[in-house]
Amino acid sequence: MNRRSFLKSANAAGLAIALPSSTFAAAEKKSASAAAPNPKTLLLKDYRPQSIYKVPVTEIKKAKFPIIDMHSHPYPKNEAEITTWLKNMDECNIEKTMVLTMTTGKEFDDIYAKYSKYPERFEVWCGLDLTGHNKPGFGPAAVKELERCRQKGARGIGEIHDKGQGLRSGKSSAPGMHPDDPRVDTIWEKAAELRMPVSLHVADPIWMYQRMDKHNDGLMNAYEWRLDNQPNIVKLAGMVDILERTAARHRNTTFVACHFANLDYDLNHLAEVFERNPNIYADIAARYAETAPIPRFAAEFYSKNAHRLVYGTDMGFDQQMYQVTFRILESQDEHFYEPEQFSYHWPLYGLGLGDEILQQVYQNTAAKLLAARDA
Ligand SMILES: [Zn+2]
Fold it and tell me: How many Å lie between the centroid of ligand 1 and the Cα of residue 207?
């Protein structure tokens, strides 16, 4: 059940108050708390503050400049939904979308067939086949499959995950084998040779590693994806070091670190990563609500690092989703909530990025990266 329908059913239960009877006793008890919330019993997950401020509200239906979305996935379940996606892209000013399939083999071929009909609008990226990663001789088969996918039409690799347990590409996983492992060397080198950028997701947001207690700033989201209870994983800082070592070992390979490399809470650290590694870029996908609470600091970071930042979404394909990202990047709106989109109780603030920076992040940085690939 999504949150919207949860709220609807909570209201429906509220009607039962007018018809008290033993049958409705349980519902009544439940609805009483819904109708008259008590701060002593209200749960954090149910907290839905609404801004009290009379301040400007900017509605941005269409991005100010054309966009290349470097981080999306094959969400549509059928042809009609792909058509809807294309219409939404048109109306929101999304020129092109990278469809990160995370797949190889027939699964990749099937997805490729659906999106390759629109070569101007979608690029399809493949995953890696990590089968046999712990057997001697791992490598040649994975490289062969990568070459086959490239031949078929894959333009990049992704999204490849390592949340501390080892590499994963969709259903294919390699526990304990991290991206800087010598066993992966031939794959990253082949990626450079085939001119395939790699969309690499390392670690996860900081709250997932912290104690799940009253001090956890992202508790409402962190708990579901918690990593604090997994003692044998490489933690966030360790994974960022692995990302840097990987990039250093393979300077001819281009890595696009997903979600600000999960350094959205410490953007100065990411700036240092960029400085040390000319072949690392980062997408800003699915970290809008994590950077919007610090609009001045985040905007400053964008202005200094826009040449390494690319737009991404990773949150489906409806228009409202795109529009929330525009509002956060473009507007100077203050103290607004987007719980439906992000599930946080905290207010967001527009970064008010200037035209030059917006154009870089929306399009130019990605265009340059892709042009270097295609040169
Ligand atoms: Zn993703």
Answer: 19
Separation of CA 296 and ligand 1 centre (Å):
26
Query: Which structure tokens are listed for 104?
Result: 């190889």
**pLDDT reading at 221 higher than 80:** no
CA of 33 to the centre of ligand 1 (A): 38
CA of 259 to the centre of ligand 1 (A): 9
Q: What is the pLDDT of residue 35?
A: 61
pLDDT digits (tens, 9 = 90+) for 132-177: 999 998 999 999 999 999 999 999 999 999 999 999 999 999 999 9
> CA torsion sign, 373 to 109 to 123 to 309?
negative
- Give distance in angstroms: CA of 80 to centre of ligand 1: 22
Q: How far is the CA of 71 from the centre of ligand 1 (A)?
A: 6
What residue ranges define each of the domains in the chain, with the CATH number in brackets? 3-42 (no CATH), 67-374 (3.20.20.140)
Q: How far is the CA of 188 from the centre of ligand 1 (A)?
A: 20
Q: pLDDT tier at 45 (50, 70, 90 boundaries)?
A: confident
Pick from 234, 351, 247: nearest CA to 300: 351
Task: Give me ligand 1 centre to Cα 251, in Å.
Answer: 24
User: What is the distance in A from the centroid of ligand 1 to the CA of 29?
Assistant: 41
The pLDDT, as a whole number, for residue 146 is: 98
Nearest to 147 by CA among 112, 187, 197: 187
Render pLDDT for 52-81 as a digit per residue (tens, 0 to 9): 999 999 999 999 999 999 999 999 999 999
Q: In angstroms, how far is the first alpha carbon of the chain from the final one?
A: 47
Of residues 333, 336, 326, the one with CA closest to residue 361 = 326
